[in-house]
Amino acid sequence: MSFLRDTLNTQTTDQELVNQYKREGDVRVLGELFQRYMDLIYAVCMKYLKEPAEAQDTVMDIFEELVNKLRKHEVSNFKGWLYTVAKNYCLMALRSKKQIPLTQMPEFMQLAENPHLENAVEKELNLNRLSKCIEGLSPDQKYTVQLFYLEEKSYKEIAGITQTEWNKVRSLVQNARRNLKICMDKNGLSDE
Amino acid sequence: MDYPTNSPENTKMEEEKNNIKYSAEYIRKYLYGQLSDQAMQALEKAALEDPFLADAIEGIEESRKHAVSFESGVADLRTKLKERISQKKRKSGILFQLSKWPVAASFMVVIGLAVFMVTYVNKKQKVSQTAPLSDSSSVTLNKSSQENSVEDSVKRDEPVIASVKSRDIRKNIAARKDSTSSVKANESQSDKKTGNYLAADSSGFFSDTIHNAEKFETLARRDVTPPVAASAKQGFYEERNPGMVSNPTETPSGNNIIRGHVINDQGKPVPYAKVNIRGSNKHVFTDTAGFFKLYMKDPRLAALVFVQPAGYESASVELIPDSNITHTIQLHSSATDADLKTLPDEKISPFVTGWDAFYHFIDSNKKINTKDSLMKGEEVVSFTLYSDGKLSPIRIEESLSAAHDKEILRLILLAPALKLQEKKRIRCVLHIQFK
User: Which of A90, B232, B246, B304 is the most buried (most CB within 10 A)?
Assistant: First the structure.
């Protein structure tokens, strides 16, 4: 089943499987769909629960949730929806164990499936605004962002260049990105 | 800055690329530094866009800290999922259908309830045309509405009134489970009705069926019968009073009521005394103030009223119905009833009041009409009295016979209420002597 990941799904798209499951209610269909993302879901559960055994149980629990939820809800983007279900389930489990994780920043759900179409003029405007916003960043963030986006260096490389830890680089980039977004939104535009 | 020009084809390519990159295997490579810098950067950029990917990366990272490798965890999961799917294979179709069943089932329940309600309401309507009814009760005393109506009627300072039925009617009624049919029986068998139906002033009705204990199937029945200008036989009634004599030559007022007030030799009212009409099985009980009311079919006839409370000599007086007069009947204590346990309340318990009346009631009205009546001894029962006056189901501690049990249970249900003060509940034991 994992081979499917490497090749494009020539057989059926996610959406087709979703529709089939809603029609027929056959858990095998759901199982096949779930398997496409099971390891990533397991990884997500590992992130929150931090224990392999627990994470495995949770993955199976999430599957059970899907059995019912997918029947009831309209789902157009299965992957994104699945992620949300899984994450919420993990957070609920953590909350009941009274281990509230660090408050999750409400990330914009920017999936690659949602691109922005921009014409040339708009892009030009955006670029201008963006450079201004970058100027507004702190030096660390600014430098890191430039390395990451402009010079397309990986975190690892940037860590080497700036003599900072990999994790720190990552969080710098993430924070910078957030700040840029806020800055761009203030000016009436969002940075995609 | 690298902004993708997202035409539809590019989008699809992006998605596919991302999908490929998103594999856990690929992430593992990333984490182990097996990707090129460019590839790494691309993944990182994608992770910034996609929280799912970001979390997955962190999760696999986390997994590296554990003895159980990420891959083996995934392999276990695949096995588990396969098992799960094959289990559910059989059930899935059923589950789908089952989900509709609860809807259908609850629908049926609703319909069933509606039908039940309609029939019940119809019955109630019929009843309410005549009089408010209380349903037949069972032994468990804490059936609420029953208790309330009985206790209410008992506690109220009004004549406690009983309806008396003929044996035939009783038989019919006892055979049926609900009081509504008893109403029908009453209505249909007017010629068999005994006279003197007695009605309370307000809604409390109380039916005393002591005389026909043997006819009962249910242990306690409270049937409320409407005040009917009784069509059955009435005898002459006399009330003889050693102390005071009522005036038998009173001119009848055209009304059907005999009112009486029973007092003892100290002038105190005698509650819960049985007031009989000679020649009839009917009787009533005096209320807590000693008053009673009798309805007479023929107002011109005098009634021989027989008062027979426990602990007193019985008295009888002839009375003529006159609503303007309340006849006072004075009783003298019986010297021979010392064996009756007149237990002042304090002896039982400082918390329970009304024990006196309760006990008197039971003791004066107990009657076994079956062959078991020859059995002598003590019947012991126990129950829990609650603060609202309700009793728990009664437990038979010592039984003389089934008939005795039934009789005691019946009497307890009909007896005046006990009051509990200061405590939530108290355990009571009752000893009844049968001689």
Answer: A90
pLDDT of A10 above 70: no
Distance between B93 CA and the closest CA of chain A, angstroms? 7
Contact indicator for B276, B305 with CB cutoff of 8 Å: yes
Contacts with A130 from chain B: Cβ below 8 Å: 1
- Angle of helix B37-49 relative to helix B24-31, nearest 10 degrees, comes to 120
pLDDT, residue B224, reads 42
| Residue A18 structure tokens | 């979703």
For chain A, domains (ranges, CATH) are: 3-96 (1.10.1740.10), 120-186 (1.10.10.10)
Give whole-number Cα distances, A53 to A101, A175, B149, B293, in Å: 19, 33, 63, 82
Test mutation, A78, A153, A154, A169, chain B, max B CBs within 10 A? A154
- Asked whether the predicted pLDDT for residue B256 surpasses 70, the reply is yes
B428 pairs with which residues across the strands? B383
Domain range B234-338, CATH architecture: Sandwich (2.60)
CATH of B340-434, picked from 3.30.2420, 2.60.40, 3.40.50, 3.30.70, is 3.30.2420
Does the pLDDT value for residue B178 go beyond 70? no
Rounded to a whole number of angstroms, the distance from the CA of B102 to the nearest CA of chain A is 15
Chain A residue at shortest CA distance from B39: A154
Least trusted range by pLDDT, from A120-134, A163-177, B50-64: A120-134
DSSP conformation class of B392: P
User: Residue A80 burial by CB count (10 A; 0-12/13-18/19+): exposed, middle or buried?
Assistant: middle
Task: Give the count of beta carbons closer than 10 Å to the beta carbon of residue A148.
Answer: 24
Q: Tens of pLDDT along A106-119?
A: 444 444 444 455 57
Where do the structural domains in chain B lie, given as residue ranges? 8-63, 144-215, 234-338, 340-434
Chain A, chain B: beta-carbon pairs less than 8 Å apart: 169
Length of chain A measured in residues: 192
Tell me what percent of the residues of chain B surpass a pLDDT of 70: 55
Q: Which among B1, B10, B20 has CB closest to A150?
A: B1
**Predicted pLDDT of residue B14:** 54
The per-residue pLDDT for range A172-190, each reduced to its tens digit, is: 888 888 888 888 888 765 4
Residue B73: predicted pLDDT: 92
Q: Is the pLDDT of residue B197 over 50?
A: no
Strand partners of residue B398: B380
Chain A CB within 8 Å of residue B63 CB: yes
Cβ <8 Å between A56 and B80: yes
Contacts of A80 in chain B (CB under 8 A): 52
Output helix, strand, coil percentages for chain A, rounded to the nearest 5.
70, 0, 30
Please write the tens of the pLDDT for every residue from A26-50: 889 999 999 999 999 999 999 999 9
Q: Do A46 and B95 touch (CB under 8 A)?
A: no
What is the distance between the alpha carbons of residues B105 and B112, in angstroms, rounded to a whole number? 10
Higher per-residue confidence, B250 vs B420 = B420
Closest by CA to A107, choosing from A93, A123, A87, is A87
Confidence of residue B62 (pLDDT cuts 50, 70, 90): very high
Say whether B68 and A52 touch across the interface (CB within 8 A). yes
Q: Does B73 contact A153 at a Cβ distance shorter than 8 Å?
A: no
**Distance in Å, alpha carbon of B358 to nearest chain A alpha carbon:** 57
Contact residues, chain B, for A165 at CB < 8 Å: none
